[in-house]
Each structure stands twice: as structure tokens, then as C-alpha cells.
User: What shape does this take?
Amino acid sequence: MKRNRHIPQHLILWLGAITMFFPIVWMLLLSLSDNPPGDVTLRELLSGHFTIKNYAEALSSDSFGVYFLNSVLVSTLIAIVSSYLSVIVAYAFARRSFPFKNILFGSVLAILMVPPHVVMISLYREIVLFGWMNSYLALTVPFFVTPFGIFLMRQFIEELPKELEEAATIDGASTWLVLRSIIFPLAKPMFVVLFIYQFLTAWNSFLFPFLFVNTARMRTLPVGLAFYQGKQSIDWGHLMAGAGMSAIPVLILFAVFQRKIIAGLTAGAVKG
Assistant: This one.
């Protein structure tokens, strides 16, 4: 009876998993098919001939190698810098006292409610004013500070025991030594979660890279894929191969670090 009670829950979970994975499977099948039509059926895809030539031709027909390297560089740099800065700023909000502390933290929370499209024009004008158009500075610097990261790390650091920091301070440790030796090691699970979140956000970003870049050599994968879609509007095999090159690294990253992600999200959930 106990096992039968869980059958509906398992069915719902399986249906949800199939619903979420079906578009990915469909994309991969199209990318591995030889010139599939737009109205191809699942049976035709499964019974057809599979090939990887779409990936090779997509790489050779457009600068997907350059787009891929740009995405890796930009996403990694944003994830590393924003995660470290989030820990430092969050530590100040969680452990230090300074004037207008609550007002400043309230402004961080307020920024979370502002859609990025609202600052699109002003941010574009600043990039032009600084002369950063078509550069890695435009693709990275505006995203080094993230309100979500500050809020997330602040909530995590507040749950850490203060005794370790107090003992280190009594022994003469500076603030930077406390951060390096105590806070960063203890916050590692949440740091990994924030790093992966920032990496995925930067990897999938389209709007701002599209605004700040108008040369092919500086495009990231989402922007390059949008332009490629215009060139190959009815060639579903090559189009899905380009989409696969954008999605597969993210899926691999999540598969490799899924345990750390879960550990980071559950760390500090039980107090004792």
C-alpha cells in the first residue's frame, strides 16, 4: 500500500521530466539528421540516417568556433569576478556595521525588482561614452556586480558561526585574512552554486551582447546563432547543430556539478 501511494507522484515526476527533455532530444535528433524537413515526424527522425556533418558544416560555414570561445571567456570571467565580489560585499552586509547599511542593502533588494530592459538605453549610452563598443569590457564589466549574488551570499554568511571569525580576530587576523581563511572555505558550496548560476546566465545572455557588439569576431554563441538563423532559415539540421553547440556545454556543466549545486542549495537549511 505504501508503494502504491507513491505511484501518482512518480508518474507526475516522469511526465515532467519527459516534457522538459523532449525539446532537447528533438533538437539533437534534428541536428544529427541529414537535411530534415520542417514537418518531419519523430518516427522519420528515428528511422533516418544519423550523421555529425551538420556540426562540421556549421563550424566551417560560420565562425562558431570564435563565438564559442567568446562565450566561454565572457561567461567564465563574469562568473569568477561576480562570485568573488558578491562574497566580499555580502560579508560587509552580514558582519560589519557602517552608516546607511540597511538603506544600502534595501537598494540592493530594490534593484532585484528592476527589469534589465529598463536600464538598456542608459547602459548602452555609457558603453558608447566609455568607448567600449565591440570589446570584452562591454561584455563583462557591467555584469561584475550582481544584486542576486550579494543577497544570496549575505543570507548564507549570516548563518555561519561567528565564533571562528572572533577567534581569528583575537589572534590578530585582518579582515582579508578572515575572508580568505574562514569565509571563503565555509561558503564554498554556495560559491559554487553562484558561480554556476552566473555562468549559465552569462552564457545564455542575448540582449546586451547583441546591443554592445556589431562585429562578427566579438559575437557570443546566442548572438551568432541568431544571425545564423537568418542565413539558414529553412536548414533545420544546421540550425539545430548550432543550437546544440550552445546547449550541450551547459548540460554537461550541470550534469558534472549537480551534486555540488544541490549541496550548496541545501547547506545551512538545517540549523543545529
Observations:
- Residues 76-232 form a domain with the MetI-like fold fold (CATH 1.10.3720.10).
